[in-house]
Amino acid sequence: MQNAVSVIGGLVKLAEHHGNQIELAWPTIRSEVARNLARNGLMEFLGKPALKVSKSAVPFRHDTALVEDDLVSYLYDSWIGKGRVHLSDALKGAIVGKACEIYINAFDHGHSPVGVFTSGEHYRQKKLLKLCVVDFGVGIPDNVRGHVKNANKSGAESMQWAFRRGNSTKKTEGIARGLGLDILREFVKVNNGTLEIFSHDGQAVIDKAQHFTSRSAIFPGTLVNITFSCDESYYRFASETTGKPLFS
Amino acid sequence: MRLEVKDIAGKNCITQEDGNALYQKIHPELKAGRPVELSFKEVRVFASPFFNAGVGQLLRDIPASVLNQLLKVTDLPPNGIETLKKVIENSRQFYSDEKNQRAVAESLKQEE
Q1: ipTM score of the complex?
Q2: Distance CA B110, CA A152 (A)
Q3: Rounded distance, CA A91 to CA A116, Å?
Q4: Taking the model in full, what pTM does it have?
Q5: Cβ of B48 and A175 within 8 Å?
Q6: CB A14 within 8 A of CB A113
Q7: Per-residue pLDDT of chain A (248 residues; tens, 9 = 90+)
Q8: B88 → closest Cβ in A92, A93, A246
């Protein structure tokens, strides 16, 4: 359901961007689904007068540019905040920082003509936090294939290349890059989370293991679905900087 | 020089632009051999593009041994430390690569 919210919202905007008008057949939508779409604000986003966004739902979000303070407030207050999840400040900061890596990738590499769409969910019983971030840009495999010596890489190989630390399709201004996906991978692996990315003909699934797959059913953009555990006991951080010099 | 990073980047150290703003402040000091202390007090969110530009980029033309002596980082929470360490490791590798060194030399020439 959570993924569908980002995808539906995004697809409607994408169709409109291409000059098409989309009319959803609202009466055909089951009442419990419609209730959900009303609760998270998607119905209103699609122009249907709707109920107020429920206080317990994570609101649907559409970004056309990266406005960092606004985005961080959303992630803190509307996603993990409002007392839904009891986590230490350090862990909240870590999770929000990792989520920001997803948005930076989307805006830096995606070139989505309609921006980035977000939906989220919190499963109190299972102690899980989920975030789904979707763009309709060129996708990871195409960006990777445009890079030196990568032209013939399959969807799976392209995804694997993108996850390798230090690999980036942007190497301008003499600044090292290529850490975002590696940081996300490490975080979910160590902390019992999952990360799924569908990008055009490539797919990556990271949990304790990692799988890269080529897909025949192509997603016209990039969908990142990340799940974090809300159980503080899973989380481990590197210790203090004391001892070893920082630049050793 | 002692800098409150919050005064330059705000509470969220995420973007390359904010990282560049920090770099512009500290690079001349460090290049001139003057010590710099960066306090991350009240900063709560960190992402790699900020550190890539703000700190990792220092390795373009200042040796690690010099940075160890001159640059002091304080009040950085564990999630920030983890990200910063990864960025430094990645930047060291990047700037030691011969191809990248040529690109960096070119970009430094253009800046002059």
Answers
A1: 0.89
A2: 34
A3: 25
A4: 0.90
A5: no
A6: yes
A7: 567 899 999 999 999 999 998 888 888 988 888 888 888 889 889 888 766 666 667 899 999 999 999 999 999 988 887 556 678 888 889 999 999 999 999 998 888 999 999 999 888 788 888 999 999 999 999 999 988 788 899 999 999 999 999 988 886 678 999 999 999 999 898 888 999 999 999 999 999 999 999 999 999 999 999 998 888 777 776 554 455 788 87
A8: A246
